Each structure stands twice: as C-alpha cells, then as structure tokens.
Amino acid sequence: MNTKNNTMKVVITGGAGFIGSHITESLVKKGHQVIVYDNFYTGRRENLAEVISDIEIIEGDIMNAETLEKAFKGADLVSHQAAQLEIFRSTDEPLFDLEVNTIGTLNVLKAAKETGVSKVVNASSACIYGQVEGITSEMHYPRPNWAYGVSKLAAEKYCDVYSDYQQLPVVNLRYGITYGEREWFRRVLTIMCKRVINNQPPVVFGDGEQVRDFIYVKDLVDLHNIAMFSETANGQSYNVGTGVGTSIKELALRVIEASGKNLEVLFENTQEGEFSKLVPDKKRNTAELKVMLLDVQKAKNELNWQPKTKLVDGLKNEIDWASANINRWEKVFYSKI
Predict the structure, then answer these.
(1) In 3D, which of 84, 58, 82, 62 has the Cα closest to residue 71?
(2) Does residue 337 sit within a domain?
(3) Using an 8 Å Cβ cutoff, are 312 and 173 in contact?
(4) Cβ–Cβ contacts within 10 Å for residue 152, how many?
C-alpha cells in the first residue's frame, strides 16, 4: 500500500455515476490518486467536472475481467459502485441483473485479489431485506422482494467469502434511498423536484403512507470514506441511512417546503406496474415496499459516524442543483424505453 504522504491509489467502479462521482470528488479533495472505471451507461463525465483534470478515467465494464485487472494494477483500494440499478429491468431481465450485480461484483473481487488490492468497499442495498415492518438492523434475515435485492445479496455473500477466506477485506454498505445533486431522473423524489421547479404540484401514488429512509449523498460519502480507511470496518456490513422514516406523502410536503413555493400535493390512484397518467413515462414499482427504514446504530457505534443533513436542507441542495441543470432531467430513465 502506498503510504507516501498518506495518499492512496483508489479505483472507483461506476465513479462517474450519481454516488460514485461524489465519492470520486471527496477522495480527490483529500489528496488521493483516483481512477474512475465506468462504462458510461448511466455515468456522465459532467458529474466529474470539478475534478476532471485531477483523475484518470478508464472506460470499461465490470463484465470485462481483463480490463478490470489492468485498471486495478497498482491500486491500493477499490470502491465498487458500478451496478444495474433498475428495479423494472431486474424484474423483466433477472439474468441480466444477476450477471451485472453478482457476476460483475465477483469479477471485481477476483481482479482485486489477483492484483494485490488491499481492500474493497462494496455498494450493497437495503433492498436485500425485502418487505419488513418497522426499523431494520443488519441482523435482520434478508428476504428480497425484487430480483435486484437477490443479486445484491448474492454479491454480498461473495464479498464475505473473500473477506473470511481469501484475505481480501471487504466492507458491504447497504444504501438506503440516497438523494442529492446529480441524482438520475427516475425515482419519485426527482420527479417531485422537477415538478415543483416547473411550478407543478408533486404527485403521490396511492395514499402516500409508504415509508422510506432518505440519506443525503454527502452523508453517505462520509460513511463510505470512514469505512474505506478503518480496519474496524473490515469484513463488516453496515446500513447507510438515517434511522428516520419519511412517508412519501410527507416527502412531497418537504419538497414543497424546500422549494419555497405555494403548491398542493396531488394524489393519483396508480396501481403497481402501471404508468402514471399525471407523470409521463413514470411507472409505479411492482411489489412495492411498504417500509424501508434502517437502524444505523452499528455504524454510529463502531465507526463514530453520524448523518448530519436534515431532509429539508438536502432537498434544497438538490432542487438548487436541478434548477441549474434541468436539461439533465429531460426524460424518466428506463433502459427499455
């Protein structure tokens, strides 16, 4: 491991994506040498604008083991953020989802081990838990409701094998609903934000009582970086959320509050799997989660981490960014549309 000036050479798969670009930016600002490895399917070079002259970019896919090994050669650490993220695609094409999220992660682990990487941080998901009631700790038995959750859970188990038996420490971070600047345009929050920017009321599907744990991207990055450089985190899995539940109905009200506009919430009786009549191109998820609420006490206790950003403040940041970059949110993103 390169210890000169306490700097590391870090490869970030998916480093041009929403979360990956924030990780890239934070590590560059800390003085580390960063290589972004991305196939630019959802990642964008614009996301890296602030640090583009300070990083190396390798255009490659995690399904290409040979290219991965070349990218990892000489690296100290790997942050694995590349993934297939779409719930609908995981349902329609579970084999594709499995290949990217599970086999792709296995490719990353194998390449990291063979090139002498010292540690991997793996982006997992709270979707591994499935339908639960109340707050969920890391000890909760996982029973995913979507193929996406299955592929991410399987990826975690390969990470555990490498941690326990292959002398490659891996940390699994189970992300809640992450929001903030550069978020891609598909999820309900981005659609609400765009509507209020355009002086339209936010739309809620059903009664809006579904509960989610919204974590601001920079708070997530703080935990990621602590986990990356802490030996305490080696071989562990951590929830990444706030421990605070927000209903979708309340979210709509908070978006209006953050925008400073005088708007009312619209409710639409869209069924699961159906397209909205009020929001062009937006589908309601099938097997929709009633509750996603994460117990984050483990990360607080073991890594001395604390989420700092209030929801309304994070929403203001996202709305300000989206207002200045509204061209980035032209169409709801589905790979099959």
Answers:
(1) 58
(2) no
(3) no
(4) 29
According to DSSP, the residues that pair with 246 across neighbouring strands are 212
Q: Would you state the torsion angle of the CA atoms of residues 228, 311, 40, 333, taken in this order, to the nearest 10 degrees? A: 150
Q: Which residues pair with 175 in a beta bridge?
A: 125, 240
pLDDT at 3 over 90: no
| Residues paired with residue 240 on neighbouring β-strands, in sequence order | 175
* Whether residue 9 has pLDDT greater than 50: yes
If asked whether residues 163 and 304 sit together in one domain, one would say no
Q: With respect to residue 124, please indicate whether it lies within any of the assigned structural domains.
A: yes
Pull the structure tokens for residue 79: 């942050």
Do residues 88 and 157 share a domain? yes
Helices (H) and strands (E) in the chain, counts: 11, 13
- pLDDT category of residue 333 using cuts at 50, 70 and 90: low
Q: In which residue are the tokens 């890239």 written?
A: 24
Token pair of 64, please?
């290409």
**Amino acid at the residue 154:** A
Question: Terminus-to-terminus CA distance in the chain, angstroms?
Answer: 44
Q: Tokens for 248?
A: 């979708």
Handedness of CA 234, 235, 236, 240 (dihedral sign): positive
Helical H runs in the chain? 18-29, 65-72, 87-92, 94-98, 104-114, 147-165, 188-197, 217-229, 248-259, 297-303, 311-324
CA distance 315 to 43: 22
Nearest one of 200, 182, 175, 143 to 320, comparing CA atoms:
182
- Per-residue confidence band for 1, with pLDDT thresholds at 50, 70 and 90: very low
Are residues 166 and 248 located together in one domain of the fold?
no
3-state DSSP assignment of residue 292:
coil
Q: What is the pLDDT of residues 39-69, one digit of tens each?
A: 999 999 999 999 999 999 999 999 999 999 9
Range with top average pLDDT, 13-22, 91-100, 284-293, 323-332: 13-22
Domain of residue 235 covers: 7-176+216-240
Q: What is the mean pLDDT of the chain?
A: 94
- CA within 13 Å, CB half, 19: 29
Residue 28 banded pLDDT, cuts 50, 70, 90: very high
